[in-house]
Amino acid sequence: MRIAMVGNGRTVHALVRGAALQARGHAVRLVTLGPVLPSTGIEVRTRPIPATLAQACVAARSFLRDLREFRPDLLHVHYAGGRLGTLAAFSGLRPLVVTVMGGDVQPEQHLGGLPPLERRATRRLLEQADLLLAKSDALRVEIARFGDFGAKTETVRWGIDVARFRRDPQAAAAWRARLGVAAHDRLVLSPRILRPLYNIHLLVEAWPRVLAQVPQALLLLSEHRADAAYRAQLEARVAALGLGPRVRFIGALDYAEMPGLLSACDASVNLPFSDGLPQSLFEALASETPALLGRLAAYEEVVRNEQEVLLVDLEPQAIAIGLARLLREPGLAARLTRKGLERVRAVASLPREAERVEGFYTRLLAAPRRRTPWPSRVLDAATLLVRLRG
Fold this sequence. Notes:
- The protein is built from 15 helices and 13 strands.
- By secondary structure, it is an alpha/beta fold.
- Strands 3-2-1-4-5-6-7 form a seven-stranded parallel β-sheet, sandwiched between helices.
- It folds into two domains: about 1-160 and about 350-390, Glycogen Phosphorylase B (Rossmann fold, 3-Layer(aba) Sandwich), CATH 3.40.50; about 170-345, 3-Layer(aba) Sandwich (Rossmann fold).
- Helix 7 (about 200-215) packs across helix 12 (about 315-330).
């Protein structure tokens, strides 16, 4: 089948999922706006993010043309909201599948909450979708706040390809040489976006307590899509605490290099105050890197405290205690990595999830085709114009 995808090209989600579906023999095209990460082999159509209304109208026209000329059997949108989602909805292509990611239905992930126009765009996408895919059951609860969509919602965790993410000692050695770390250094990686949502500042505040117990600990902070003001705040705090030699900002990370970096690390940390279900968790488990997580309902659907991961409260002392345990208790770390690898293979295999999604597609294509009423299309057009002006 021919699958048109819409999603943010600056993240790996739509690219990796599209590649998994393409591997099953389907033709996939990702249509987006703005920069795109190195391609995973699927066809990509993009154009610069417009700066003026005139540019926005031209970009929207090209965007819609790239979707329609592909003549897709269905349209799959990754993120229930945003300008890309509004453009996709306005295309009128059916069947429409929407993967809910987290920030699209969790207003607490946005400073000041979801603006009314953004909330309306999300609700419209959820209403129009023929099928909703939620990364976790916790997200299904969030979706229900927008309406009764349970009958058309499935939980699909997507997961990762364990053939790509695995323990790689050779790549780990290359990464340690690249970082110039000593043989005795114990590396802890924060792989998430450098923004306040992910509580990197709590990790920095915890770090003096970690060093008191493990002086060889070295904190590595990814700078993917970094918020400049937040980065400056973190740098100032690192300096004030005298942590400069033991905290390192390592730039934006290439997705292809993540298995090697995770293999080089002694622990991985995820501490957001709100989340769907992160790929970075599955990547760490598959790479046999012990994982420390904040206590979130979505996480506890797939992993258990003291079994596959350590779960901690979102405060510096608890974070420090948890990290010190991972670094000082080899028996604990070994048990977590063994159980974590078993768990990710059982619940988060990307090839297996892609096969499930293929089955959902087949079911949709066999059902009668719904159409969007013209009054709704007119309202969508008005909303799109307002959003493009913004």
